[in-house]
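Key result, reporting period 2: structure in, sequence out.
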């Protein structure tokens, strides 16, 4: 059991980090098991509310692949993937918009507000925030980001709310695009000049041995990323995540973290403690 003195010491240790991030923009890309496990979901939202209340300008971006797959199954559509990306015809794009910008987005806004936060839901189509074009013809309405306008996010932050952003994009013809959430988070964090980007996954971070959590690499310089990919340390689905981390740093984000969203309060542990728990990318 934690004593009052121990609680006070924990708060004192967090103070330098609170001072560091006070008034700064922190982008959190929310996904993985933390989205579907209710206990973890509540822990993440409490972390975000706490950060907001101590003066951190938190921007929450989310995906929702499993819920999209579930809804497609309900309407009798099979999910098909090419290179890890969901093939998206027009009907699928409509369902993506409905699930991400409706059910998930407004559910997160409601949850944040129920625990004392002030949140506003946005999607990439609002204010033309995420403008896109087809990434590859065979993928249909999977989008490549052409331009990002972060003014809607900044307006929400300016009024003291937490922006909750679903990564659905659009083009000038009114088409809807499914946008990879990691890609969108990196681009938006860069455009916002964020102090850091936190990406939540279902692994401990970058591991030298994927079977051994004790081989976590706590710090990676951008120059090391190509070598780690070449040697297979960064492999599979972690390659695009690492590339998005690299993109965010190159666009001006000072620090990028990949953290284990299966750990309760992982966001607070990473941002407000000496030890952290994931992998940090820096230039």
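The corresponding designed sequence is given below.
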């Amino acid at each position: 059991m934690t004593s009052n003195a121990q609680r006070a010491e924990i708060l004192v240790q967090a103070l330098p980090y609170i001072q560091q991030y006070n008034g700064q923009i922190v982008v959190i890309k929310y996904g993985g098991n933390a989205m579907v496990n209710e206990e973890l979901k509540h822990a993440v939202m409490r972390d975000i509310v706490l950060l907001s209340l101590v003066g951190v300008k938190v921007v929450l971006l989310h995906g929702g692949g499993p819920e999209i797959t579930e809804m497609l199954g309900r309407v009798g559509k099979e999910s098909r993937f090419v290179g890890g990306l969901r093939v998206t015809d027009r009907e699928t794009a409509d369902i993506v918009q409905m699930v991400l910008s409706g059910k998930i987005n407004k559910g997160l806004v409601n949850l944040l507000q129920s625990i004392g936060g002030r949140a506003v839901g946005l999607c990439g189509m609002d204010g033309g925030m995420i403008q896109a074009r087809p990434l590859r013809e065979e993928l249909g309405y999977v989008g490549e980001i052409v331009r990002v306008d972060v003014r809607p996010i900044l307006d929400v932050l300016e009024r003291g709310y937490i922006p909750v952003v679903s990564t659905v994009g659009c083009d000038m013809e009114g088409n809807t695009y499914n946008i990879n959430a990691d890609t969108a988070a990196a681009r938006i964090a860069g455009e916002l000049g964020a102090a850091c980007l936190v990406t939540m996954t279902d692994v401990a971070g970058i591991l030298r041995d994927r079977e051994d959590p004790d081989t976590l690499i706590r710090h990676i310089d951008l120059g090391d990323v190509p070598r780690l990919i070449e040697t297979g340390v960064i492999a599979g689905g972690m390659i695009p995540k690492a590339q998005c981390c690299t993109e965010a740093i190159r666009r001006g984000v000072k620090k990028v973290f990949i953290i284990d969203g299966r750990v309760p309060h992982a966001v607070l542990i990473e941002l407000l403690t000496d030890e952290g728990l994931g992998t940090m990318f820096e230039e």
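Residues 23-282 form a domain with the Carbamate kinase fold (CATH 3.40.1160.10). The longest helix spans residues 90-114. This case is discussed further under Risks and Mitigation.
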